[in-house]
């Protein structure tokens, strides 16, 4: 059964923000774990992957291969960063942090999230750099003050040390606000047609049982910059609503759900609700009316199967009872017949014996 989808368009242009984010992870204390891995992500799509221990540098998209083919220096920069600069820097920082925290043994990891954003319409640029140690936020660079911010008390000593290295802080600023945005634009030149495509979702209303929440499920959409919510009489509602995470599909698209508790609603109340899907950077929405006749569920099918199963069990039981009765009846008949036959035989013998006696 097909749902009725209403697509509403708005002529107002919305801002288009692009991002290039590098995720780096260095580790120490586990011999079988690679010491450094990195991933470059463009607009939420994995673009480059590197593994220093196994000397792997892989473009993860066809358009990234085109970028590297057109700019061999950029490819060499990534190799140098992945195989030499970053592994060495991460190793030295982990050693320093272990000494600071008196950690002589054990497995430890150092992670960074660094990159930039570029607003296509206004040209506005911004950068960010954040460190985490052993799974907890540690330090963050404030580009406005060009100083490090402690994200936990134990990071104060490292903050003072890194603040004193003004040259390193300045290099970070140049990379995050100048080099990174230009590199992002290079990726967008080759990958924009793929990155900026918009694939609308298939939206369904799902429900496990009549008392379960109704799930508005959208799947197959791209990009992942999307929101979903329930409305009542055109107004967004929060009570009784549970919003799920955006999850990836195997084909590179995404899926998400938003649940609404309808256990106390009448059919008339349900008709006042609708589910809204919207790409966050595109003024287009998909509206799905809450109509109980359009809800897809497997509980009816399950009940039908259970009833069919119960009928089959009943038939089998009746059949077994019939067979048992038939067997018992046959046994009774046979026994009765045997009892009737034995006296007759005796009488015949007695008659025969009587005849013999008279003859004699």
From TrEMBL:
<dbReference type="Pfam" id="PF07654">
    <property type="entry name" value="C1-set"/>
</dbReference>
<dbReference type="Pfam" id="PF00129">
    <property type="entry name" value="MHC_I"/>
</dbReference>
<keyword id="KW-0472">Membrane</keyword>
<comment type="similarity">
    <text>Belongs to the MHC class I family.</text>
</comment>
<keyword id="KW-1133">Transmembrane helix</keyword>
<dbReference type="InterPro" id="IPR003597">
    <property type="entry name" value="Ig_C1-set"/>
</dbReference>
<feature type="domain" description="Ig-like">
    <location>
        <begin position="201"/>
        <end position="288"/>
    </location>
</feature>
<dbReference type="GO" id="GO:0005615">
    <property type="term" value="C:extracellular space"/>
</dbReference>
<dbReference type="InterPro" id="IPR007110">
    <property type="entry name" value="Ig-like_dom"/>
</dbReference>
<keyword id="KW-0732">Signal</keyword>
<keyword id="KW-0812">Transmembrane</keyword>
<dbReference type="InterPro" id="IPR011161">
    <property type="entry name" value="MHC_I-like_Ag-recog"/>
</dbReference>
<dbReference type="GO" id="GO:0009897">
    <property type="term" value="C:external side of plasma membrane"/>
</dbReference>
<feature type="transmembrane region" description="Helical">
    <location>
        <begin position="312"/>
        <end position="333"/>
    </location>
</feature>
<dbReference type="InterPro" id="IPR013783">
    <property type="entry name" value="Ig-like_fold"/>
</dbReference>
<protein>
    <recommendedName>
        <fullName>Ig-like domain-containing protein</fullName>
    </recommendedName>
</protein>
<dbReference type="InterPro" id="IPR001039">
    <property type="entry name" value="MHC_I_a_a1/a2"/>
</dbReference>
<dbReference type="InterPro" id="IPR050208">
    <property type="entry name" value="MHC_class-I_related"/>
</dbReference>
<dbReference type="InterPro" id="IPR036179">
    <property type="entry name" value="Ig-like_dom_sf"/>
</dbReference>
<dbReference type="InterPro" id="IPR037055">
    <property type="entry name" value="MHC_I-like_Ag-recog_sf"/>
</dbReference>
<feature type="signal peptide">
    <location>
        <begin position="1"/>
        <end position="18"/>
    </location>
</feature>
<dbReference type="GO" id="GO:0006955">
    <property type="term" value="P:immune response"/>
</dbReference>
<keyword id="KW-0325">Glycoprotein</keyword>
<dbReference type="InterPro" id="IPR011162">
    <property type="entry name" value="MHC_I/II-like_Ag-recog"/>
</dbReference>
């Amino acid at each position: 059964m097909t749902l009725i989808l209403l697509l509403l368009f708005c002529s107002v242009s919305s801002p288009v923000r692009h991002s290039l984010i590098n995720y780096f992870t260095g580790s120490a204390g586990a011999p079988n774990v690679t010491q450094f891995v990195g991933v470059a992500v463009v607009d939420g799509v994995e673009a480059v992957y590197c593994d220093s221990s196994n000397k792997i540098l892989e473009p993860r998209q066809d358009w990234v291969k085109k970028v590297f083919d057109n700019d061999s220096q950029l490819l060499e920069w990534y190799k140098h960063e992945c195989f030499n600069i970053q592994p060495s820097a991460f190793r030295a920082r982990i050693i320093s942090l272990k000494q600071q925290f008196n950690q002589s043994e054990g497995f430890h990891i150092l992670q960074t999230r660094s990159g930039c954003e570029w607003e296509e319409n206004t040209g506005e640029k911004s950068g960010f750099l954040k460190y985490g140690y052993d799974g907890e936020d540690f330090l963050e660079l404030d580009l406005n003050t060009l100083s490090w911010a402690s994200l936990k008390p134990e990071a104060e000593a490292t903050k003072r040390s890194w603040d004193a290295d003004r040259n390193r802080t300045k290099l970070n600023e140049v990379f995050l606000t100048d080099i990174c945005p230009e590199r992002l634009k290079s990726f967008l030149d080759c990958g924009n047609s793929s990155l900026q495509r918009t694939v609308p979702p298939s939206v369904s209303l799902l429900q496990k049982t009549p008392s379960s929440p109704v799930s508005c499920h959208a799947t197959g959409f791209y990009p992942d910059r999307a929101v979903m919510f329930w409305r009542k009489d055109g107004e967004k509602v929060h009570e009784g609503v549970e919003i799920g995470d955006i999850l990836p599909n195997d084909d590179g698209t995404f899926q998400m759900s938003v649940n609404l508790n309808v256990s106390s609603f009448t059919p008339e109340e349900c008709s006042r609700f609708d589910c809204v899907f919207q790409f966050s950077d595109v003024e287009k929405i998909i509206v799905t009316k809450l109509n109980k006749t359009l809800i897809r569920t497997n509980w009816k099918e399950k009940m039908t199967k259970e009833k069919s199963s119960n009928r089959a069990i009943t038939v089998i039981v009746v059949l077994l009872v019939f067979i048992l009765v038939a067997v018992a009846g046959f046994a009774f008949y046979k026994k009765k017949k045997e009892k009737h036959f034995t006296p007759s035989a005796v009488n015949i013998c007695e008659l025969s014996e009587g005849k013999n006696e008279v003859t004699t």
